[in-house]
Each structure stands twice: as C-alpha cells, then as structure tokens.
Amino acid sequence: MPRIKIYTRSFSPELYRLSKALYPKGVESVRLTDRTADGYFYAMLRDRDCDIAINIDEDAYVTDPDAVMALAQRVFDEGWANAGTPDCGPGCPRSHNPIVTNPFFNILNLKLIREKYEGPGQIKAFDYNAVKEQMKEAFLGRVTEPLKGDFGIYDFEPYYSFYLWLAYNFKTHYLPSRRHKDGMSTILSDGSNHDLCLHSWMARKYKVQMDQTYRINSLINEAYGIRGIARPRFSRWQQLGFALELAFSYIKKAFIRISRWPGKLRRKLRHLKK
Description:
Blueprint: E1 4-9, H1 13-20, E2 28-32, H2 39-45, E3 52-56, E4 60-62, H3 65-78, E5 82-84, E6 105-109, H4 110-113, H5 120-124, H6 128-140, H7 160-169, E7 172-174, E8 177-179, E9 186-189, E10 195-199, H8 210-227, H9 236-273
Parallel strand pairs: 1-2, 1-3, 5-7
Antiparallel strand pairs: 3-6, 4-10, 5-6, 8-9, 9-10
C-alpha cells in the first residue's frame, strides 16, 4: 500500500478549515503556508515519508472521499505520475496550455517522480519549446474532450515548467470536468461517473468581494449537503484569529511578489524578443 498524504498550499485559514473537514478520513494532511506556487511541489517531493500526494486547494471541496482514495490507489497501480484536469478543460474558466493540469486538485505519484527528479534546477532548465510539437501530438492522441487552450503558453504560472516536465517524462492521466451552474465553479470527476470535488476559484476574493463570498459560501454549503455533514461554525474569537492570520499572509505575500519581479521581467523580455 502506498503512503498517502494530503497537501494544501493555503492562504486563508478559514477556507482551509472548511476544506479540510471534507478530506478523506484517516489520511495525514499537511498545510503549507509559506511556499511559492512552484516551491510547493518541491516541498512535497522532499517528503520521503509520502509516496502519493493528494494535492487539494483550500477552495476545493471533496464530495466523494472514497472515489478520491480509489483514484489515488489507481495512480499508484497504473504507474501514472499525475492525475488532474487540463488548465483549459470544459469546466475550467481558463484557456491556457491543456498539457498542464491545474493544481486545484492533483494526485501526484511522488515515488515515481523521484526516479527522475534531481532538483528544481532540472525543472527550470526544461526546454518545452524544443519538444512542444511532440508533446502536443501525444496529448491530442489521448484526450477526447473539446479544449480551448493554447499549446504555445509555457510560463503563464511558475508551476507550468513542473507540469510540462512531468508530462514529458511520465504519463499524466487527464480528468474530465464540467462547469457548475453558478457559471464559475468547476465540478471535477474521476472519469467513472464519480464527482471528486467542487472547486470555487477566486479564493482570494473570499471575505473581500460580497458577490464572490456569497457564491463561494453557496458552493461550500452544497458540498457539505452532498456529504450529509453539518458545516462547521466558527466563534467570533476564531474569526478574529482567521482575520489576523490572513492579514499577516497578505503582508508576507507582498514581499514574495516583490522578490519575483526580476523573474517576471525577464520572462516578459523573452516574449518581446520573439
């Protein structure tokens, strides 16, 4: 049996608590609050006590934990490195590179990935453009869903190079998705008529924009209703603690973003030269 853990890159303590209450029972969960969008994956790979990582965003709410665990076992048994949905699937409000899986939900076979993974420098050095047509052909031969993405996008997010390297060196299993009735959220399925989770998107707008807060709360209530579980209620002191932690996170994130400006400028200059 593989050693399985649940990993979440978290920003909002309240959303994390609400998501965590719906995780499969009996599985160790790890909350990472001080990792960049790509450093988060390298932190998982350093955890030698984990063979399979179930990566769940704090604004993704598990509706069928048994199906999630069955998929995790299947990823291990089939020798897949990754299971996730394209970053432009039918249920995704984005239209980026379909080879990349959006990290709101992934199951990563860390034990397999470590066989070729040497470090972050190896990932950053991966030249996607040199093998783009080969990867595009392989992808189109395996996916039947109508997609609206752009294979030319390779650095839209810091984690893009990780997923592209992963897809080139191993097999990625692509999961189907569909759009929720609210017009924004995603319903992710396992391909065998089981819905795995509901993903709200726009987590950074929670408790910031009234319309998005209402929509996200409605989706959370729906997930708890599907599971037949009462949604946790937090005291005023707990809410105050959440607010203070969130304020600190915003300050820390500002410093992280400033530190990444040189890299973003270099990427923009590369695009201008082409």
